[in-house]
Amino acid sequence: MRTNLNTQIFIIYIGSVILLEAVKITQSYFKIHFPTMVLAINIFYVFKTFSQQLKSNKKTSEYNTYTH
What we know:
Keywords: Membrane, Transmembrane, Transmembrane helix
Largest sheet: none
Shape: elongated
Oligomer: single chain
Number of strands: 0
Low-confidence stretches: none
Mean pLDDT: 77
Distance between the termini: 84 Å
Order of helices and strands: H
Number of helices: 1
Number of domains: 2
Transmembrane segments: 7-26, 32-50
């Protein structure tokens, strides 16, 4: 029972160390790539709204050709 508890504590310790390292890596990665990521998200959002606008314009023009 005692060894089982020790292994559990060890596993938790290793897991927390790995988690901390992952957080550090992620933070350093975000410091470098965060502006690029934000820019990419903005471009994607603009493109999405633009394509939706094009689709709605196309639907409106089709509607106009059918009604008039």
